[in-house]
């Protein structure tokens, strides 16, 4: 039996487990790129309008830091690549990290891998299977994106470069996740470590695009942009991520051979022999389990909000030079000024991000149940409703804290730059906090799924979030009908700052959230713990 015996079978099982998750991610990313190219084709119909827009981008340092350079300013494909190669490569890399950690470290943590390894399975098969699952997902994404961009009128060679640029970066971070899965003893730590590397890569890319260009070459996200789809035929750049992923994969297999199943090369510190009295309630325990996540997300929201608030004035200057861009941003964000519309759009993105935290936080209920740690808690004088409610409180209050941090940071930086801190801070902060009713509706939906359909709660919850994301970010651009947009609770929020607040939709969202939560908690209290 070789070290890779059983790899094909493990890959097939993994693809079946992810039969919902992978198609949703692939569809969302491919549709975003294709939809962007389609919308740009309608917005910038003439060469002069495309050159005018590109000139505005080049003169704005904040936009360069966000999206990078426009390498082909006279083509729709070049504008699409500017807008989506870097961001798309980052999102595809997140998918790679989640898949590899899920099929390696997470399976070890749950004991599933130990059971599988008792059969005719080689030592390297689980890691190879996880990497192959990520490769299949990313190759599918690349091919669909290539075909879609070609179908909407873009040159095939540039479309192939576009898809391969995404694929190269995603494979690098699949290998990064393979390494972090060997270093950490928990899936959560492995994900956090790999995501930190990805965040650093994106930051290096931003520094390189706004400052010294050589810094971009230190980032796998920068490598994707250096391929320059639709501009230069720089196929040779693709060799860089291929070489990097090969080296990292070899390192991961070498590390995997040096450790025991279930352990990590960086051991977890043992806890105290006697538990803290402050952990005696289920709410305190839920907070202890999720406090690192809440703090890290809140810091991320504050940093992102500060960055967005700092560039708001620059975005206003950019779009004023282009009637097409002005039209699309106004349609996406509001009616009372381009800067307000931009800030309202960004606050909507923060709302989606807070919803992602809520999904992650509430899925902790299912993971605690699957790992049989919930049984230990419920064996004491703790009712099931109280245990569930404790995690709901952490998810709901945590999302409020994050949005407040993001809105506060954006309001302060924007107010300081506009020399109107007292006037801008409450407006921007309100734009962030107003997202909460929609976030809570999603929280109620996730709890309903957990209470009624626990086996599919993870896939269904992330799918629901993906649908809301697509409707919110691409629906107005693609001019989807109103009934489709209304399916998302975020559609019913006022676009603050720059709009008026109507209480009835907000009250309706809160009522829906309360009803969904109540039904979900009732279902969780009545069903068997599995």
Task: Describe the protein's topology.
Elements: H1 7-17, H2 21-43, H3 47-58, H4 61-67, H5 76-103, H6 105-110, H7 112-117, H8 125-151, H9 156-183, H10 187-210, H11 220-226, H12 239-256, H13 282-319, H14 323-333, H15 338-370, H16 373-378, H17 384-417, H18 421-433, H19 436-452, H20 457-473, H21 475-478, H22 482-485, H23 503-526
Helix pairs in contact: 1-8, 2-5, 2-8, 2-20, 4-10, 5-8, 5-9, 5-10, 5-11, 8-9, 9-10, 9-11, 9-12, 13-15, 13-17, 14-15, 15-17, 15-19, 15-20, 17-18, 17-19, 17-23, 19-20, 19-23
What would a concise description of this structure say?
With 530 residues, this protein is mainly alpha-helical. The protein has helices at 7-17, 21-43, 47-58, 61-67, 76-103, 105-110, 112-117, 125-151, 156-183, 187-210, 220-226, 239-256, 282-319, 323-333, 338-370, 373-378, 384-417, 421-433, 436-452, 457-473, 475-478, 482-485, 503-526. The two termini are 35 Å apart.
Task: Please give a structural write-up.
- This protein has 530 residues and is mostly helical.
- The protein is built from 23 helices and no strands.
- The protein has helices at 7-17, 21-43, 47-58, 61-67, 76-103, 105-110, 112-117, 125-151, 156-183, 187-210, 220-226, 239-256, 282-319, 323-333, 338-370, 373-378, 384-417, 421-433, 436-452, 457-473, 475-478, 482-485, 503-526.
- Helix 4 runs antiparallel to helix 10 and helix 5 (76-103) packs antiparallel against helix 8 (125-151).
- It is globular, with a radius of gyration of 24 Å.
Short key terms for the protein model shown above:
530 residues, 23 helices, globular, mainly alpha, 75% helix
